[in-house]
Specification:
By secondary structure, this protein is mainly alpha-helical. It contains 7 helices and 2 strands. It has one domain: Four Helix Bundle (Hemerythrin (Met), subunit A) (Up-down Bundle), CATH 1.20.120. The N and C termini lie far apart (about 50 Å). Bound molecules: S-adenosyl-L-homocysteine (SAH). The site of S-adenosyl-L-homocysteine has 17 residues, from helix 3, strand 2, helix 4 and helix 5.
């Protein structure tokens, strides 16, 4: 897959992600927040992730400024990146659709918040973050550059590592035993499938 094709695929997928986010952000706009836990630290990591995920790839695709940091990967890695990115988009869309009005871009509990354990949330507690991780891997395979290809995953990791324990604590504070039980049935970012015998029983 040529460099030009990889960049075109990246931009099409990037637009799909933005469209999904804009659509669902509009849906939750009216839903009141009852508990917000955004810290200064999280704001900083969010900003870092924003640079790695949104600004650098656009600079890389549309300007020649970052080409000095290119790396070499075989052309076929572009096809793997294309497939992984498609899975990431599907997961990003499904997690938004399954969370519905309970979704927030940061750590927040909304009015009438309910614990979702259906759809992709039946198997995995953080499918949206998993989709970001897959997107980061796909980006490194599609855009062969240390700065605008690889920096996505590098900038998302601190945010992920900071946020997951805080989010799980917030959910435990809100839903108590119900969330603890949910945690035991699901995987963090790797799906946990219940044994079929347990399902039947
Ligand atoms: N960590 C999840 C959700 C990301 S959106 C994922 O990766 O898919 C972040 C917000 O979703 C949090 O502020 C929390 O209020 C809400 N949330 C997380 N898990 C939830 C669940 N199982 N049910 C309902 N709301 C949830």
């Amino acid at each position: 897959m040529s460099e030009a094709t990889r960049k075109v695929v990246f931009i099409i997928y990037f637009c799909a992600i933005i469209a999904i986010r804009v659509y669902f952000s509009r849906q939750v706009k009216q839903n009141k927040i009852t508990d917000g836990r955004k810290t200064q630290e999280e704001k900083l990591f969010l900003f870092l992730a924003f640079i790695g995920i949104f600004i650098l790839p656009l600079l890389g695709v549309f300007t020649p400024w970052l080409e000095f940091a290119a790396y070499d990967l075989p052309d076929w890695t572009g096809w793997i990146g294309t497939g992984v990115f498609l899975i990431a988009i599907w997961l990003f869309w499904r997690s938004h659709a399954d969370l519905g009005l309970n979704w927030s871009a940061s750590l927040e509990i909304r009015e009438n918040h309910s614990l979702v354990d259906t759809g992709v949330y039946h198997y995995i507690r953080h499918p949206m973050y998993a989709s970001f991780l897959l997107w980061g891997i796909a980006q490194a395979l599609l855009l062969h550059n240390w700065i605008y290809g690889l920096f996505n995953i590098v900038s998302f990791l601190p945010m992920y590592l900071l946020r997951v324990p805080q989010e799980e604590q917030m959910m435990l504070d809100t839903f108590g035993e119900q969330y603890r039980d949910y945690m035991s049935r699901t995987g963090r970012v790797i799906p946990k499938f219940p044994h079929s015998s347990a399902e039947l029983g």
